Amino acid sequence: MKHRLPRTKRPLHLMSFCLLVMPFFFLAALAAIILPGPVWKTENSILHYLATGLQLEEKRISPSPALLSPAHLSLKNVEASPCDDLPDEGGLSTGEDKYDFGKSVAALDVALSDDYFEDVVFIGDSRTEGLQLYSGPQNATYYHSKGLKVDTIFSSRVVRTNSGMITIMEAIEQNPPAKVYIMLGINELGWAYSDLFIRKYTDIIRAIRKIEPGAQIYVQSILPVTQKRSQSDKIYNNENIGRYNQLIQQMAIDEGLYYLNVAECVSDEEGNLYDDASTDGIHLNKTYCDRWFNYLKYHAALPVQE
């Protein structure tokens, strides 16, 4: 009896295989074109990268085209503003005659680059000193002193030069700044007359403008103190700070100044400085100085480019 060898299966020809699977690829491609799906809409899809050449992160802030032309705006190292959940107030300047100085400067869509601060002068007391020490731009100029007030700024020799110590106003006269950021008022809370405080503050503004009429001047709100400090101190409390901030904001309206409500970036819902922001209830640690500077990078009155 003859034994038959077992039959072996013939290998599938390559052409036959292609003819077999091609209809499935064709149907899949046709369905993708006809049916809408997330692949065609997501910003992070491969097709989007190929079409735009941009590698966007999921939480990157979308820049406004009107703000991309100024050289000081940068898309590098864009970080979310710590106050991006707060409502924007104010608006971008298109000329001082159209700007609403009664509102806080609105938030930008992208952060300012470090070059923006090259011609900035920061004026203030020990809190501004902390900003420079911990977080502030190193290419800016700082004029500050512990206990500095709106009156002693004209008389206290706190700026060191090659020829000796001079006052802040003398320093400004020697090197007129293009942009000035001022925060004063915490040391004046104990003054008997608040109208004297704002009158002296206004003298500073007018003196700077006499030296440099084109200077862009920002007045920053006085930062709050912690709830514990506020409740235990008859002078350095948030009620007094709020009252002084109202005077500063009114001065901004009267004198045409850019008002920066930096207090909103370091305070809780009740307007108190966060407990973990300070060891003495007044001066900010590095984490909150970072928040302060980050706020400044996202708030500036820049001209809208047509």
Question: What report would you give on this structure?
Answer:
With 306 residues, the chain is α/β, with parallel strands linked by helices. It has a single domain, classed as SGNH hydrolase (Rossmann fold). Helices cover 32% and strands 10% of the residues. The protein contains eight helices and seven strands. The strands form two sheets. It has a five-stranded parallel sheet, with helices on both faces. α5 (194-211) runs parallel beside α7. The longest helix is centred in the N-terminal third of the chain and has 21 residues, at 14-34. The protein is globular, with a radius of gyration of 30 Å. The N and C termini lie far apart (99 Å). 30% of the residues are buried.
Strand order of the largest sheet: 2-1-5-6-7
Radius of gyration: 30 Å
Q: What is the CATH homology-level superfamily?
A: SGNH hydrolase
CATH architecture: 3-Layer(aba) Sandwich
Q: How many DSSP helices? A: 8
Low-confidence stretches: 2-10, 32-71, 74-80, 84-96
- Overall body shape: globular
Biggest sheet statistics = 5 strands, parallel
Could you say what the CATH topology is called?
Rossmann fold
- Helix and strand content put the structural class at alpha/beta
